[in-house]
Write a structure and sequence with these properties.
CATH class of the largest domain: Alpha Beta
Radius of gyration: 20 Å
Structural class: alpha+beta
CATH architecture of the largest domain: 2-Layer Sandwich
Shape: globular
CATH topology of the largest domain: D-amino Acid Aminotransferase, Chain A, domain 1
CATH superfamily of the largest domain: ATP-grasp fold, B domain
Oligomer: single chain
Order of helices and strands: EHEHEHHHHEHHEEHEEEEHEHEEHH
Largest sheet: 6 strands, antiparallel
Distance between the termini: 23 Å
Number of helices: 13
Helix content: 40-55%
Number of strands: 13
């Protein structure tokens, strides 16, 4: 790479969320890839010195590889907007919307994509109305099995598949460990797929869908990040029509939420071939076992080339 083409890039990784270790792994892979292309890369934790560093050094672009609240709830992105330094990924307003699973579901449903029936319950609801009556109402209105998850967060932390009424109270406690608000969804049986959406300047496009098949049980935190615990099929084993419907649903979700540059849209495809939206991720995992790098490779591209193209797109969008 010629000297004039090299960019000064700050990759942010770490943070203080429950997903710090995963973020560090993602950030290292992004930084290594950009370094290999000849860019000048600084890998930094988002600590008390970060904003001063950005204001003084004025890098060409910031590449956030931060998972969890510290990177995906919109707060840091709002501050990055105020610095005026270009950054990869969705802006603060879209990040806040996607970070709230109940809000995202509402937006996506209005855009015409199916999403499982659900109820959103802040912890205060149990204190006000009584845990017993609340859970009885849930079980009458939503047939088992259901999925209980934190209303914010990622990497399947605090997520429980509930098959019996006796399991529901514990599942609520687990969800509230990660968020003050829990989402209870009707479980949709089918094929779990994730679709990475990338936009480097020509509009968002879906990469090949990745089919997820845990070796045992559900696609848990450990199954996501420990090699050998999940089978991935890239592209997903879907017929042509369903593949097209899945890609269209992912791009629709990306657009409806106002996301930018990259996202990962998680869906379930039922027996009829209907894609059901589960959640959107403004910063997909980029580790050695993550879905987005697999999808990039399946599309015939190198992950590092896509990461560099996203950096250039961020600069163009500034």
């Amino acid at each position: 790479m010629a000297e004039k083409e090299a960019l000064d890039i700050v990759v942010l990784a770490g943070g203080i969320s429950h997903e710090r270790d995963i973020s560090l792994r993602s950030g290292r892979r992004v930084a290594d890839g950009l370094n290999a292309l000849g860019h000048r890369v600084a890998l930094r934790d988002p600590d008390a010195s970060l904003l001063g560093f950005l204001n003084e050094s004025r890098p060409d672009v910031v590449w956030p590889a931060l998972h969890g609240a510290s990177g995906e709830d919109g707060a840091l992105r709002g501050l990055l907007e105020l610095t005026g330094v270009p950054f990869v990924g969705s802006r603060a307003d879209a990040s806040r919307l996607a970070w709230s699973k109940p809000a995202a579901k509402t937006v996506i449903e209005r855009a015409g994509v199916s999403t499982p029936r659900s109820v959103t319950l802040p912890q205060e609801t149990f204190r006000e109305l009584g845990a017993g009556s609340v859970l009885e109402t849930v079980l009458r209105g939503l047939s088992l099995p259901v999925v209980v998850k934190p209303a914010q967060g990622g990497s399947a932390q605090g997520v429980t598949i509930v098959d019996t009424a006796e399991e529901l109270p514990r599942a609520m406690v687990d969800a509230y460990t990660y968020s003050d608000v829990a989402l209870i969804e009707q479980k949709v049986d089918g094929i779990e797929v994730s679709v990475a959406v990338v936009d480097t300047g020509d509009g968002p496009s879906a990469l090949p869908a990745v089919e997820i098949e845990p070796v045992e049980g559900a696609y848990t935190f450990d199954a996501r990040y420990n090699a050998g615990e999940t089978r991935f099929y890239v592209p997903a084993r879907l017929d042509e029509g369903v593949t097209a419907a899945v890609a269209a649903a992912a791009v629709t979700a990306h657009r409806a939420l106002g996301l930018r540059h990259l996202s990962r849209i998680d869906l379930i495809v039922d027996a009829a071939g209907t894609p059901w939206f589960l959640e959107a991720n403004v910063l997909p995992g980029l580790t050695e076992t993550s879905i987005m790098p697999q999808a990039i490779t399946a599309s015939g591209q190198e992950p590092r080339d896509v990461y560099a193209a996203l950096a250039l797109a961020a600069i163009a969008d500034a």
